[in-house]
Amino acid sequence: MYRRIHEAVIQSPPIDDFDVFKESKDQNFFESQESIIALCTHLQEVVTAIRDLDESQLKDEFFKLLQISLWGNKCDLSLSGGETSSQKTNIMSSLEELKPLILVNDMEHLWSLLNNCKKTRGKASITRVDIVLDNAGFELVTDLVLADFLLSSQLATEIHFYGKTIPWFVSDTTIRDFNWLIEQVKGSNHKWMSKCGADWETYIKVGRWVYHDHIFWTLPHEFCVMSQVAPDLYAELQKAHLILFKGDLNYRKLTGDRKWEFTVPFHQALRGFHPAPLCSIRTLKAEVQVGLRPGQAEQYIATEPSWLTIGKYGVFQFDGPL
């Protein structure tokens, strides 16, 4: 459907580059201003104090920003039918009460991997984290804040982002959304928000943040065939030390959207897709989920029949050597 919309638009100059979802995505950003200001302010406070943080404090901040990126995935215009899905409350104040809603929590694996890279990295070597993006608007801000923290803490030295080549699933991020959001943040009249935007622009200019387009992300293939269908993209992902896959659609394509048993290991459900250590960061909005403990799914089925699709629950699901 999204490819058909795009085909119709590109055959109709002067609207051949028109994004039919742009207004909704922009509205999500503007309606989330208070939350974005709070998040940018927090980031700048952390960055200012980062040299004084011990390893335990750094880990706590990493976990906090990971969780913010997870719950940012709730802001999904395809789930809300295009209705407003902005983040109007300060998500940082809700993290403790949201923690029990994380069904699989592999954040410790992510910390161990990146902290070990940091400790063993030589002066000239790099640590690369790739982020396969999901929604524009508030969720994209949470992803960029996490990416900024990874550089500032030296847990990573390069961040590579992957978006969609065409408007996709209402609020999915395109290169225009990515650049537009950074410009908006930079142009804010709030000093810390503006500082974030200026820093992000600099990261792009000096090559520490890199944005990639690839048509594969908007094709119907599951990711286990990427090495055959898009070997160039697979080879690019293999350069990463860690790949973060944001959102529900990426999870469905990681697992082939199959009717797996809930207890099937995540590694098995990936069906040979292992370009690099990877983690799905996802709030549940579709009827596929693997890697749960025996009895865990049945517990939710009994108490909340729609638990798989309402975006209330989340996962950090890691695959890779430990």
From TrEMBL:
Domain Damage-control phosphatase ARMT1-like metal-binding: start-end pairs: 1-298
A biological-process GO annotation: methylation
Gene3D superfamilies: Uncharacterised protein PF01937, DUF89, domain 3 (3.40.50.10880)
Catalytic activity: L-glutamyl-[protein] + S-adenosyl-L-methionine = [protein]-L-glutamate 5-O-methyl ester + S-adenosyl-L-homocysteine; beta-D-fructose 6-phosphate = dihydroxyacetone + D-glyceraldehyde 3-phosphate; beta-D-fructose 1-phosphate + H2O = D-fructose + phosphate
Alphabetical list of SUPFAM superfamilies matching this protein: AF1104-like
Top-level taxon of origin: Eukaryota
E.C. number(s) listed in UniProt: 2.1.1.-, 3.1.3.-
Domain statement: Subfamily III proteins have a conserved RTxK motif about 40-50 residues from the C-terminus; the threonine may be replaced by serine or cysteine.
Record protein name field: Sugar phosphate phosphatase
